[in-house]
Amino acid sequence: MNDPSAFLDEPFPRIPRWMIWVGGLFVVYLIILQLAYAIAADRGVAVINSLVFGWLSFFLHRLGMMQPDWPSLLIGVLAFITLMMIVHTIGHRVAMGFGDAGRWTGRSTLAVSASVLVLFAGGVAMVGAAHQALWLSSDARTTKSNANSSPWPEPPGSFDFVQQARLAALQSMSRNNLKYIMLDMHNAESTFGSFPPGAIVDEHGRSLHGWVFSYAAYGAYWIKTDWKTEPWDGPTNQEYAKGALPEFVNPQLGWHGQFDEHGYAYMHYAANIHGFPNNRGLKITDITDGTSNTLAIGEVAENFQPWASPWNRRDPADGINDVPWGFGGPPSQNGAMFAFFDGQVRLISRDIDRSVLRSLGLPNDGGPTGNWESKLR
């Protein structure tokens, strides 16, 4: 009978040449496809440069903004060590079954564990690349010139079920952004006794920064400077103001037009100017109409402002999608998402009466009257 451990001495099988050719042709096909897209979009050089070098500039830009998460890093190291122990135990027992336990060494364990890690990272990368490819192929904006198209995706047709499902998913993500903002708002209120002030104005009448800077400092972000004494675009604070925060980006708009000409990151949401006054934050007891009847944060569709600026507040009485400086949502929504002070998020139709919006914006006017909830979804 043949020695069952003889296979360990056999050379590793070579990859068939036809598989190499198929893989190479597939890569060439992807390159040709991206070149065709670049030419069709009339952005050839820019797109090609982004595809080849974009990852490097993005990595270098983000590297200085990264803060190590030591507990997560420690858990990852411990998980990898545990994986190596399991692989070594299984490999050693398999080798013993063939009568040659000595052939399984620490180098074998490290090689298999590293291979598993690389395969896992490759799988995550492939999933991300597939999602990005689907997003590009289904986004109407990628086939139009930036100078002639709206930054918002066009409303889907009656039978465009794929685009309808996609926009519904993005709408849900925007709803989650508002919920996340209000969650941190309530964390700040529980800690400091009030919601963040709408804007900080010094004794000379100079607007230093807005409610979002206070939210970022008291919420999920750590700002390691005395940001209160310096304007939002000062030499120290601008380092933070030029960083885009994911929950401030409406997923339907994406990262298109995310920064202004000075490099400051825009925000696609704004606060209710009546709920966030200057230099002081409202307490829950100040909202006598009830937190479920008072608007806090809403979507905006144009005239975006940098998130750290003092001008990220709007008046609900200006209507929805009626004026550039008012609240508004994507054309496909026929309305805008709003978060109320109690944390609920509702889609309010643009057909709602302005008097109702005005009442919803005021925290202590007695509340709206009539069948106004029929305009909420």
How far apart lie the N and C ends?
75 Å
Provide a count of the helices: 8
β-strand number: 9
Q: Order of SSEs, N→C? A: HHHHHEEHHEEEEEEEH
Description:
- It contains 8 helices and 9 strands.
- It is 42% helix and 9% strand.
- Helix 1 (17-40) crosses helix 2 (44-63) and helix 3 (70-97) packs across helix 4.
- It starts with 16 loop residues before the first helix and ends in a 16-residue tail after the last helix.
- The protein has 2 domains: 4-58 and 69-143, no CATH class; 162-375, no CATH class.
- Strand 8 (335-340) and strand 9 form a beta hairpin.
- The strands form 3 sheets. It has a 5-stranded mixed β-sheet with strand order 7-4-5-8-9. Strands 1-2 form a two-stranded antiparallel ribbon.
Characteristics:
single chain, 377 residues, alpha+beta, 2 domains, 8 helices, elongated
Question: Can I get a quick summary?
Answer:
The protein is an alpha+beta fold and 377 residues long. The protein has helices at residues 17-40, 44-63, 70-97, 106-138, 161-192, 211-218, 238-241, 354-361, and strands at residues 199-201, 207-210, 266-267, 269-272, 295-299, 305-306, 313-314, 335-340, 345-349.
